[in-house]
Design brief:
By secondary structure, this protein is of the alpha/beta class. The chain has helices spanning about 20-25, 30-35, 70-80, 100-105, 175-190, 215, 220-225, 230-240, 255-265, 295-310, 325-330, 335-350, 380-390, 400-410, 450-455, 460-470, 475; strands at about 1-5, 40, 45, 60, 85-90, 120, 145-150, 155-160, 195, 245-250, 275, 315, 355-360, 480, 490-495, 500-510, 515, 525-530, 540-545, 550-555. The strands form five sheets. An eight-stranded parallel beta sheet has the order 11-10-9-5-2-1-13-12. A five-stranded antiparallel beta sheet has the order 14-15-16-20-18. Helix 12 runs parallel beside helix 16. Bound molecules: 1-deoxynojirimycin.
Length: about 550
Amino acid sequence: MVYQIYPRSFQDSNGDGIGDLNGITKHLDYLQKLGVNVIWLSPHYDSPNADNGYDIRDYRKVMREFGTMADFDRMLAAIKARHMRLIIDLVVNHTSDEHHWFVESRLSKGNPYRDYYIWRDGRPNPDDPSHPLPPNNYPSYFSGSAWQYDPPTQQFYLHLFAVKQPDLNWDNPRVRDDVFALMRFWLDKGVDGFRMDVIPLISKQPGLPDLTPEQLKDPSRLWANGPRRDEYLQQMNREALSKYDVMTVGEAIGITLEEETKIINSQRHELNMVFNFDAVRVNRGDGYTARNWTLPELKTIYDNHARVLGKDDWDTVFLSNHDNPRLVSNYGDDSTPEFRVRSAKLIATMLLTLRGTPFLYQGDELGMTNYPFTRYDQFDDIEVKNAYKEKVQTGKMPESQFVAEAHRFGRDNSRTPMQWSAAPNAGFTTAAAKPWLAVNPNYKTINAAEEVANPNSIYRYAQRAVALHHAHTAFVYGDYKDLDPTNTQVFAYTRSLDPSQHFLVVLNFGEKPVEYKLPEGIKVGKLLLGNLRGATEPGGSTLHLEGWEARVYEY
Ligand code: NOJ
């Protein structure tokens, strides 16, 4: 089980309002007791923080606000002492514009680092010849064009993300060598692998032609399937990964499930796993808009995973991270305290019993919720700020609609500080400090101190769910079968590993109680885990489930 830490928001140990590495070290027992095997640490490197560390200035330095390299070494040793492992975030599709490679690169066309990035002449601008147009029509993920004009050399550079995140030119073998060297630097220290940021985007389309109107609807599809992607990942595997005992997980933006097997099939020696976003995106339309979805659609996604991914492809299971809303607000029901607790437990049950390595994001184990944003100025995220400029400031969208949508899906929802206790600032930082992003006002009731002590809490339930996952190899290697794909309220599936391990998971995905008749031939046995009074229901083939009730049986 992997637990993602967003260091900026986890625990501040020195009263500057920003989380840090010593803060993480302080809470390792908490994570170990939850049953965490691996910690994924979001970027901890030196950065000007245009995108909270996803813009790296120096890959071999720790971000000043997060501490020192000695703090990192102490944290790593303390993780290993608890038999956990650490994977770090590898962000190498782009760097910060303050990275010395880029500082050099933009100086002159003849600079030895010029070709580390993607520079092009602009297109003539008939209306204003002194202001050339971008070289092609690529949009940036963070609004506007993906090209930035740079006056010193009068060329544009490519940035698929923020202006301060220029894309590296992976076609340059020196870039690849330098990236593999920095990977070895951290692997030699003993880190156990990487989560790889937008890794499929590293191979660009030859000649960078304009996107067609069709391609413009979802540019990631093209960007993620560049011709040399697999060659580069195989080289990375050969020159860095294969020399160590590591685990890797790539962010598979723009890749279909079928295409994903190219990257994760163990015979191909690229990455171990990827994050496929089909499930996370099932309720999302464009931008921050919602999409109506049904439970059978979600089931179809998991069924596809079981069908398409074979024995040589290892899967991940996750529904949250630092780019998505809070798990319980997004897929559960946070409208009442009772349903929040039940639905958070139900989702934990699902994530820990589906097929694949489960990932939880910090605070999921507490059922932390979206922040009650009401105003634009409460947001910090560059994605929100740029979208605001593009949509609201141009009059394309009323401010109130923008705030409502960003409240629903904006990334800051999951970036508010961890709620450790009912103390001021939720114990995330000292009482006197101002946290870098406001603490969710519900911290007095939703916090780790309360939940660790309360046997009925989400944390204590998650602990049992993780223990169950660890106790039976069927949850790791077992087959997955959806018992009732068209049922719009109940998600019922089995995990089985012959000859003796047969488990049944039944989830009532909604607030309405339901009577559920199991398919022919299936009768429940011992109840292993349940988020409600299920234990008192006699065994049999008809179950009476309360709203958001989850049960795991032997059968
Ligand atoms: C994906 C990361 O998860 C996200 O937080 C970041 O903004 C972009 N990649 C750019 O690095």
